[in-house]
């Protein structure tokens, strides 16, 4: 805790009497620097091309605490250390990085009167450094990129822009987004002020409508995505449900997804970053519909709903509310867009309505506040507060929250912003976004199922405690350095929202001792918050939200990101010196002990999980405990409504919203998505996004070649002619006795093997032999049989591309890192084999359609160059196996036959991970983090945190 006392501060060179914070030590000891209490070690961060030995990144002798994982140290070294590699200016120690950042915070706090004495400033400095190097929390990435460097001191990751119904404003939107993207951050905007395509211009013509202007912004974001050095452009586009162009907006991305499938089937390069994807529009933004309570009630009642002119507010037309809602769900079922934002709920919890409504959000939907504003984020590692006796360290959690809020508010004082409008709003309202990570790991470690009353009670209590403490500290800061500039104008609505939070805390129902203790402290914090807020006001218009915590979650060695459950029970751990090993998540043994299992039982269950990646039928594990180990994916995936209920348990205690995607199985129906959207509204969520597994990979049984069918329709009715079409049987073309071949030695997840691929002298691949394990073993026999089956298929004319489509992304053990620079990670041996065969034997265009690129091609994409120019030419004659191979030519089937494309059943088990993009930095498949994606290999994210 802290006290407010009289002290001195320096402002503009003048000494003045002012109040200041009296800091108390939490984790540190007077007279001892926090770094001196840590054992430090030197490591080498070397990223090499295993095939030719070339080095992609090298920095030797970097310094980190011994308890930091290899992955966390690698990510910080490559992402956050500043200075040119190989020069004396390059940072080489975590100490230097933390000193650079914390030094600016401490100096700014002293200069602006935050601390009562120099001793208090030193305590702040030491406590902040201790918390960061011990991975108790982390600031968002822009802080590490920019603070203390010669670059602009941008600290915010999230921005909201505004667009009016004027061409000048629309062009400003394009420019402002570009500046934000260039800095590695994301932005959101609501286009509902732009008049619809059904309204007239003052000149008498018809307006273009907002969807047409989205094309230009999408193209700009796509260009910057290719050239950005930090991360891909991330953006959100919002449209109100009563906008006359809402149906066009809803269907926009679903139509483009149809185009992607058609072009991909035709052989175009439609992979992320592919040369032909630029012909598809609207792919660089998340889309969300702003739904009102009026609309949702009309959906419930089956009523008509009015679409209103933008300038006059008059109803232009009425639509069936349920029909429009169905179209939203249908589009989301097809391509995961649009999400929904519940407008009245958002604005009912708005602290500053006198300034303006909340109309939009950042790209991941967790930051919802005023137009032309920004938010800097920080996230607490919850698992660090689980003590050895399995209790939650409430008092230290409270003290750390105070410390973080103080630091975050100081950052707004020195921060730079991409536009003057954003600078003015942010400095006037000082929006903060404290949140947390590792909730899923904390619940599992304490023996609580994610989808359970106990799990939700803990999550709700922790979130309430965090936000109550944050606003209490904000009120204390207001008493020292003053409330935010817009507070007096919004004092009553702000205090009303504080009372709503406190009332929600009163309504929280506890289940066991852990959440009861947390809830009791939360109640005290809210009481102090209301008392101090009435006296001083508040320093910050917003305090909390739940962000994806992608890169910073990896920096803190978190098992789970944001509010998410565990992704899977088994993961890969990087090893010093290279390579990786498969390990069972360390929270599992702790959970088993908490549930009362003996050590020999724990060992047997962990061994079973290591071999099977799930707990079903694990020896000695009681079925009633299965739910504790449910994950986002796998044998026992958490039900969609389980995700919604967890969001609802925490939303009343957050100033902002939650970045999270509700995962649905591939078998989910449009009705299921409607139900999720409806329940999200009823349960008081502010925003919601859904993702149906494989909705962007597979497609239902369909008929292609529509143009051909249309062209062959008879002009006039005629008696149909019955034709018998004979489909020729393929014949086998055996390999000659002597044939060219290539042998590849490979390692996947530590398992070694050999692959020999033989080709016809002039006709492409015709035979594959695989060797793993000892001769006579079961695995060796299975691989021999598989090799024979594949080889016979190739000789009968099955295209290699077909095999690659079936086996790439197939997931089973062994899996993990390989020694092949072109295929850094493999989901299985089959995944690796067919990626390698595709790289060696398929032309670039065919590989690009499958998302398979060499290391050099990925590097070219990162530089914004055409990777096709780097691909080695493949003799098209050598690819004759794309048609049946036989001794003499066989007529091809008639071209007017429909082409059937089926969903790949192997991919149906991959879920959202199978659909995840490849990291354009290192080529590793990314994994979900909130509503974004993060690369565990290098820390790159597709979002804005």
From TrEMBL:
Residues 881-909 are annotated as: Disordered. GO terms for biological process: DNA biosynthetic process. The keyword Transmembrane does not apply. Residues 45-135 form the Ribonucleotide reductase class II vitamin B12-dependent N-terminal domain. SUPFAM superfamilies: PFL-like glycyl radical enzymes. Keywords: Cobalamin, Cobalt, Disulfide bond, DNA synthesis, Nucleotide-binding, Oxidoreductase. Residues 156-691 form the Ribonucleotide reductase large subunit C-terminal domain. InterPro entries: RdRp_reductase_class-2, RNR_2_N, RNR_lg_C, RNR_NrdJ/NrdZ, TSCPD_dom. Residues 736-839 form the TSCPD domain. The keyword Nucleotide-binding applies. Its cofactor is adenosylcob(III)alamin. It catalyses: a 2'-deoxyribonucleoside 5'-diphosphate + [thioredoxin]-disulfide + H2O = a ribonucleoside 5'-diphosphate + [thioredoxin]-dithiol. Its EC number is 1.17.4.1. GO terms for molecular function: cobalamin binding; cobalt ion binding; nucleotide binding; ribonucleoside-diphosphate reductase activity, thioredoxin disulfide as acceptor. Catalyzes the reduction of ribonucleotides to deoxyribonucleotides. May function to provide a pool of deoxyribonucleotide precursors for DNA repair during oxygen limitation and/or for immediate growth after restoration of oxygen. Belongs to the ribonucleoside diphosphate reductase class-2 family. This is Vitamin B12-dependent ribonucleotide reductase. The gene is nrdA.
